C-alpha cells in the first residue's frame, strides 16, 4: 500500500515530520482548550444527575439538576436509571476534580481506541498518518466534538471495537457481552448484536439470544424497582428532537425535509416521517440481505462488519455528530480497498474530512456504503476481481 497514489505525498520523510508536528500542536491546543475552559457539558449532566439521585431526588428533572449545580443545566439526563449507579463513583470527587479526571480517562480511552483501529487496519506508515488525519478531521471533527461535549461515546466505542475483534476471532459470548455493555447507555447499539447472525451458526445464535434476554431482564428489573424513574427516562428520551449539525441522522433529515412541505399536507399525514423512515429501514434491510450473498460473512467477517457499521449509522433514529467516530475506520477502510482511482480516493477523503453542508456526515456515510456494496456486487457478477480487506484469520 506504500505506493498508493492517495498517500504518495505522505511518503516523504520531511512531509511526514511536518504533518506529525502540526497534528501534535493542534492536538495539544484542543486538549488545552478543553482543560482550561468550561466544556464537557454532558459530564456536568452526568455528575449532577448522579448527585440528585443519591439524595433521593429526580435525576430526570433538569430543574433539580440546575439547583444542585447552582447553575443552569442545559441538557437533560437521557440514559436508563441503571446507569446512574455507574456514575456514582464520580461523586467521590468535587466537580472540578472530576472534570479533570474524566478528561484524562477519555484520553486514555481514546488512545486504546486508536490502538484498536490501527490493529484492525494494519496500515503501513503512510496510512497510519492518514488514520491520524481522519481522527482529527473526519465527519466534522466527530472525535474532537466528543471530547468537547464530555460524552461517553468514546468509552462506548472502545466496547464496540473490542466486540468487533471478538467477532473476527469467533468469540460469540464476549462479542455479545461487549455490545450489551455499550448499549446500557444508548439502547440503539443493541442492534449490533445481529451482526453475527448472518453466519447462521448455532453458538452465535445462542449467545445473541441469551445476552439480549439478559439485557431485557436488566431493564425490566430496573422498571419494576423504580417505575417513576424509568418513566422519566422514557419521557426525556422521547422528547429529544435534535436535528441538523448536532444530530445528522436519517430520521432528523426526513423530518427536516418534510417540515418544508405545506401545512395542509403535513396535517393530513401526521405520521409521514415515520412512514418514510420505515421505507428507509426496509431499503437498508434489503441491502443487508443482498450483502450477505455478496460479501459472504463467514469468509469475510471484517468486510461484513464494516458494512454493518455503515448500515447501523444510517438506520439509527438518533446519531449525534460525535457518534460518527464509529465510521472513521470504516470510511478509511472503504477508501483504501473499494475505491481504485486516485481521484475517487481524493474526493471520498474530501467528502469525509471537509465539512461544507448540513447532513454531510450522513451523505458521506451513504455514498461510501453504496461504493462498498457496488464493489462486491461487481465481483459477484464476475467483474474485475480484487481483494477487499483481509481474511479474518490473518488478523487474529
Taken as a percent bin, the fraction of beta residues is under 5%
* Global outline: globular
In this structure, how is the largest beta sheet organized?
none
* Distinct helical segment count: 17
Please trace the helix and strand order, writing H or E for each element.
Answer: HHHHHHHHHHHHHHHHH
Radius of gyration: 22 Å
**Uncertain spans, ≥5 residues at pLDDT below 50?**
1-6, 389-396
Terminal CA distance: 21 Å
If you average the pLDDT, what whole number results?
86
Q: Please give the share of residues in helix.
A: 55-70%
Question: Structural class, from secondary structure content?
Answer: mainly alpha
Secondary structure tally: strands? 0
Overview of the structural elements:
The protein has 17 helices and no strands. It has helices at 13-36, 41-54, 62-69, 82-86, 95-121, 125-149, 153-168, 172-182, 202-225, 227-239, 250-258, 263-268, 272-295, 301-315, 328-337, 342-353, 360-380. The protein is globular, with a radius of gyration of 22 Å. By secondary structure, it is an all-alpha fold.
Describe how the helices and strands are arranged.
Elements: H1 13-36, H2 41-54, H3 62-69, H4 82-86, H5 95-121, H6 125-149, H7 153-168, H8 172-182, H9 202-225, H10 227-239, H11 250-258, H12 263-268, H13 272-295, H14 301-315, H15 328-337, H16 342-353, H17 360-380
Helix pairs in contact: 1-6, 2-3, 5-7, 7-8, 8-9, 9-10, 11-13, 13-14, 13-17, 14-17, 15-16
Amino acid at each position: 500500500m506504500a505506493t498508493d497514489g492517495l498517500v504518495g505525498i505522505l511518503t516523504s520523510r520531511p512531509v511526514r515530520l511536518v504533518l506529525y508536528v502540526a497534528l501534535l500542536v493542534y492536538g495539544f491546543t484542543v486538549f488545552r482548550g478543553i482543560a482550561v475552559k468550561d466544556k464537557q457539558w454532558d459530564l456536568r449532566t452526568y455528575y449532577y444527575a448522579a448527585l440528585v439521585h443519591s439524595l433521593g431526588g429526580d435525576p430526570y428533572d433538569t430543574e433539580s439538576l440546575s439547583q444542585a449545580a447552582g447553575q443552569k443545566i442545559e441538557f437533560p439526563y437521557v440514559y436508563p436509571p441503571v446507569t446512574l449507579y455507574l456514575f456514582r463513583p464520580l461523586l467521590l470527587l468535587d466537580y472540578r476534580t472530576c472534570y479533570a479526571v474524566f478528561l484524562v480517562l477519555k484520553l486514555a480511552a481514546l488512545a486504546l481506541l486508536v490502538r484498536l483501529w490501527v490493529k484492525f487496519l494494519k496500515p503501513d506508515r503512510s496510512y497510519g498518518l492518514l488514520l491520524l488525519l481522519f481522527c482529527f478531521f473526519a465527519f466534522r471533527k466527530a472525535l474532537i466534538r466528543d471530547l468537547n461535549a464530555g460524552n461517553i461515546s468514546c468509552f462506548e466505542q472502545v466496547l464496540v471495537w473490542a466486540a468487533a475483534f471478538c467477532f473476527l476471532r469467533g468469540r460469540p459470548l464476549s462479542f455479545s457481552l461487549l455490545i450489551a455493555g455499550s448499549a446500557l447507555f444508548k439502547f440503539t447499539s443493541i442492534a449490533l448484536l445481529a451482526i453475527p447472525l448472518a453466519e447462521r451458526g448455532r453458538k452465535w445464535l445462542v449467545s445473541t439470544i441469551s445476552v439480549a434476554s439478559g439485557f431485557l431482564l436488566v431493564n425490566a428489573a430496573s422498571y419494576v424497582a423504580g417505575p417513576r424513574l424509568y418513566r422519566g427516562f422514557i419521557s426525556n428520551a422521547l422528547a429529544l428532537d435534535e436535528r441538523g449539525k448536532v444530530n445528522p441522522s436519517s430520521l432528523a433529515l426526513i423530518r427536516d425535509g418534510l417540515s418544508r412541505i405545506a401545512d395542509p399536507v403535513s396535517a393530513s399525514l401526521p405520521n409521514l416521517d415515520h412512514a418514510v423512515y420505515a421505507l428507509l429501514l426496509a431499503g437498508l434491510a434489503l441491502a443487508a440481505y443482498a450483502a450477505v450473498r455478496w460479501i459472504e460473512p463467514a469468509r469475510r467477517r471484517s468486510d461484513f462488519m464494516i458494512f454493518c457499521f455503515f448500515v447501523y449509522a444510517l438506520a439509527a433514529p438518533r446519531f449525534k455528530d460525535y457518534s460518527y467516530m464509529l465510521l472513521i475506520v470504516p470510511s478509511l477502510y472503504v477508501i483504501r480497498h473499494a475505491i481504485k482511482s486516485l481521484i475517487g480516493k481524493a474526493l471520498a477523503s474530501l467528502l469525509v474530512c471537509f465539512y461544507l453542508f448540513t447532513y454531510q456526515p450522513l451523505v458521506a456515510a451513504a455514498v461510501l456504503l453504496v461504493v462498498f456494496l457496488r464493489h462486491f456486487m461487481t465481483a459477484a457478477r464476475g467483474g474485475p476481481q480484487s481483494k477487499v480487506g483481509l481474511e479474518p484469520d490473518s488478523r487474529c
